[in-house]
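Thread title: Can someone regenerate the structure for this chain?

I was given the following input by a collaborator and told the matching structure tokens would be attached. They weren't. Posting the sequence so someone can regenerate them.
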Amino acid sequence: RPCACLGCLATGRVVSVHVVINFVAADGKSWERWAVLREGREISCAAEGCESFELFQRGDDPNKFMFLERWASLEEHHHNMATNIVASGHLQKVLPLLNGPIDNGVVGLR
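Best answer:
Regenerated them for you:
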């Protein structure tokens, strides 16, 4: 399904993939976690096919974070994860700061 955001409607572009990733930082690690997540955001923003990449922190729980990403294709998202996040060692910097598993998935507009 094509993206229906104002930017895509105005430019006529079709965005095929929206990805949501939720994280919970270990207690007392939220500020350290914020810096590492921002670093990952910057890495991904520079990747081929990344059209938008936002990082949010919950107001009611400072240990909860969310990435909201838009990619030109699922393949480009997967390539970024494999090459820029996993193989570079960045994911290994994130994992010790977590409390629980990463919750992620591709979402569609309805």
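The chain has a mean pLDDT of 85.
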